[in-house]
Design brief:
The chain has helices at residues 2-15, 59-71, 98-108; strands at 20-30, 37-49. The protein is an alpha+beta fold and 111 residues long.
Length: 111
Amino acid sequence: DDMRETSDEITRLIRTRPEVRDVFVDGGRILGFAGGGEEVRKATFIVNLTDKSERHITQRELEHWFTGELAKLPDVRSWVTNENGERALSLIISGSDNVAWLQSSVASSVW
């Protein structure tokens, strides 16, 4: 019941944006090619937006708004994925000195 209540609250929040055409919630599992499967504590929200010609802000700006607003909700962690359920950044590290390379790469990155 907590999951349903939280999902309903998130859906209401998402629908406050005029750029949102509809919201589909798949509760109890995670969608996606890698890592998909049943998980009763998680839900996937598929948000369909109005056509970009009808919006005054970009999809990326909406994604930032969504994640910022969802971060304010207690016990909710969220991230944006592509249509395959993958996050925007993936790192694959191989070799014998992975830690040194990773530390230097992260230290020189601008977030």
